[in-house]
Amino acid sequence: MQRFEKKFVEEFISSFEAKFPNVKCPVCGHSDFELLPGYHVHALQTNTDFAMMPPKGAKTVTLACKTCGYLLNFMVSAYVKDEQ
Ligand SMILES: [Zn+2]
C-alpha cells in the first residue's frame, strides 16, 4: 500500500492536535493513536443496490487506538487544505 506523503501526515497531525490537543479513546481512555497509511472512503449512495462502479464518497483518514484498536474516522477536508 502506498503511504501518505510526509507533508500530508504532518499537516493532518498538526491541524488535528490544534483542534483536539487531549484526545482520548472513547472505549479504553488511552491517548496513543496511529494514523493508518491510507484513506478510508465511505460510500455515499442514494439506495442500497450493489454498486458496480466505485461510488463517490467521503474521504477520511483513520486513527487507530494503539491499546484497544478502536478506529476513529475524520474527514480529510476538515484538516488538510491541499490534499494529495
Ligand atoms: Zn482504545
Summarize the structure in words:
The protein has one helix spanning 6-19, and strands at residues 33-35, 40-43, 57-65, 71-75. A hairpin with a 5-residue loop joins strand 3 (57-65) and strand 4 (71-75). Strands 1, 2, 3 and 4 form a four-stranded antiparallel sheet that branches. It has one domain. The model has no long low-confidence stretch (mean pLDDT 89). 17% of the residues lie in helices and 25% in strands. With 84 residues, it is an alpha+beta fold. The chain starts with 5 loop residues before the first helix and ends in a 9-residue tail after the last strand. The chain has one helix and four strands. It binds zinc ion (ZN).
Uncertain runs: none
> First CA to last CA: what distance?
15 Å
Structural class by SSE content: alpha+beta
Shape: globular
Can you count the helices? 1
The biggest beta sheet, please?
4 strands, antiparallel
Domains (count): 1
Q: How much strand content do the residues show?
A: 25-35%
